[in-house]
Amino acid sequence: MRFPLSWEMNMQNNNVIQVEGLTKMFGDFTAVDAITFDVKKGEIFGFLGANGAGKTTAIKMLIGISNPTSGKATVAGFDVLTNPNDIKRNIGYMSQRFALYDDLTVKENITFFGGIYGLSRKRIKEKSEALIKELGLENVASQLVGSLPLGWKQKLSFSVALIHDPKIVFLDEPTGAVDPITRRQFWEMIYKAANQDTTVFVTTHYMDEAEYCDRVSIMVDGKIEALDTPMKLKEQFQAESMNDVFLKLARG
Amino acid sequence: MKRFIGFIKKEFYHIFRDRRSLFILFGMPIAQILLFGFAITNEINNVDIAILDHSKDNTTEEIINKIAASKYFSIKQMITREADIASVFQKGQVKAVLNFEKDFSKNLIKDHKATIQVITDATDPNTANTITNYINAILQQYQKELNKDIIIAYQILPQTRMVYNPELKSVYMFVPGVMTIILMLVSAMMTSISITREKELGTMEILLVSPLRPFQVIIGKVVPYIFLSIINAVVIVMLSIFIFNMPVQGSLILLGLESVLFIITSLALGILISTISATQQTAMMISLMGLMLPVILLSGFIFPISSMPMPLQIISNIIPAKWFIIILKAIMLKGVGMQFIWKETLILLGMTVFFIALSVKKYKIRLE
């Protein structure tokens, strides 16, 4: 079992994500309103918020595909404004939409994504064998990904996001459409990655999943309204579960 | 570079595993060129005709022999009464009847003119028109021979007055147009669809989060279509040469270079379309309505530009296909070199640069 408070022991200078006053405006509308937070190495950081609270916009700024209007952020030690390409080399990303190629086989998908991250042919081969074995996909390795059940695709998608051993992996509602068993297995994979010192930055709608995170931030209307360990948040809001915390915040 | 090759490999997987793209890429060009070459043609071959000869003299016999000797007509039957004309048509046995007036030779010598009635089955107006033209041509040819050493010309008067244009080989006109359409279709429509597909599936986002630069992604998506378009251009030229015996008078290298230029113009348009459309459907509609229709209607492919109203003539100038068709016709049919088409080439080049610049500007490097 993972020790949830491990981050507190080595918090000095161990921030893989540092955000200060990060803001994104679309015209007059402030999608992300001066958010400030840190994420520690190896941490599972839950990034919560209702639909339209600004989560996805915030993530897009952090992964270097959207420029902030103002504020500062560094990811994996690189500035989002000046070095987005260095960031891209050091992060993995999995979006809420399943994003492997359906018309490519499992192996071809792995090879392709390994390739665009610049892995050597030998490394891709090793990775691909290990990954297929780990996910138990030996029998379907040469089948088109489109023919696999969604749960398998989702797990494969996560593994592919980790293929280049990124320092941080961003998961945008990764468990959106999968069954509870797959969700469970998915979180086991997340824990495993975190244990290997990969920082996990995850957004979710499921409040039970929020309980699995080391720390959780809750965004309301573009602002971060709460940020702490699930346990402390429950204390602070005198709530039974994260669900209650969320409801109390979201309803204002 | 290795990343890039991997990317292109993946792109080819997409193309070869999608029956729809495969059909558009390879079925369509061949189907279109054969269709335009054979089916939609103004030419006729071995058309059955009947002859009603009221004179039965030397001149009519000579004319009949001339017609019979041409590969365009075969004489199915000789009829003897006017009343038979209707019945042979009704039976559908012949497409045309030639009716020589009485005393044809005598009239020709005495009055220096004689009349043939050319009656055609106009249920198929195009064919009827063509048959008339061809018969006129044969008659004129004969007349010319007849008048070689005679001072007062003999005139054979066919009742139709259209003038035959011996240069009108329809397939020669269609090949440049079809080639233009196909290159446009493959390059612009297919690339715009394949780029928007990645947007639609969400994989574009993944690619943009990867260390690949946006322009690498776009070039990676475009390069396979350059290859395939070049192959298509070669196939079309081969088909034209070997099946339709169309001569390519000019330099094949020049033809190839101009084609590559036009392919790049179309690809730039395809990228431009993909930047303004969110779904594959939109991309396809824009390509079809925005590119194909103008190419078919305004490029001079089917309707001559010179006979369009002035506003359309002016609009036709901004259609890249117009210039490419002029270039193709000049190289293929007239066999001219660069010195005669540098202006058109320059215009096309200018358009290409403009479209590339515009699509680079429009291409949203950062997904908003």
From TrEMBL, chain B:
<keyword id="KW-0472">Membrane</keyword>
<comment type="similarity">
    <text>Belongs to the ABC-2 integral membrane protein family.</text>
</comment>
<feature type="transmembrane region" description="Helical">
    <location>
        <begin position="21"/>
        <end position="40"/>
    </location>
</feature>
<feature type="transmembrane region" description="Helical">
    <location>
        <begin position="250"/>
        <end position="273"/>
    </location>
</feature>
<dbReference type="Pfam" id="PF12698">
    <property type="entry name" value="ABC2_membrane_3"/>
</dbReference>
<feature type="transmembrane region" description="Helical">
    <location>
        <begin position="340"/>
        <end position="360"/>
    </location>
</feature>
<keyword id="KW-0812">Transmembrane</keyword>
<keyword id="KW-0813">Transport</keyword>
<dbReference type="InterPro" id="IPR051449">
    <property type="entry name" value="ABC-2_transporter_component"/>
</dbReference>
<feature type="domain" description="ABC transmembrane type-2">
    <location>
        <begin position="132"/>
        <end position="366"/>
    </location>
</feature>
<dbReference type="InterPro" id="IPR013525">
    <property type="entry name" value="ABC2_TM"/>
</dbReference>
<keyword id="KW-1003">Cell membrane</keyword>
<keyword id="KW-1133">Transmembrane helix</keyword>
<feature type="transmembrane region" description="Helical">
    <location>
        <begin position="285"/>
        <end position="305"/>
    </location>
</feature>
<dbReference type="GO" id="GO:0005886">
    <property type="term" value="C:plasma membrane"/>
</dbReference>
<feature type="transmembrane region" description="Helical">
    <location>
        <begin position="171"/>
        <end position="195"/>
    </location>
</feature>
<protein>
    <submittedName>
        <fullName>ABC transporter permease</fullName>
    </submittedName>
</protein>
<dbReference type="InterPro" id="IPR047817">
    <property type="entry name" value="ABC2_TM_bact-type"/>
</dbReference>
<dbReference type="GO" id="GO:0140359">
    <property type="term" value="F:ABC-type transporter activity"/>
</dbReference>
<feature type="transmembrane region" description="Helical">
    <location>
        <begin position="222"/>
        <end position="244"/>
    </location>
</feature>
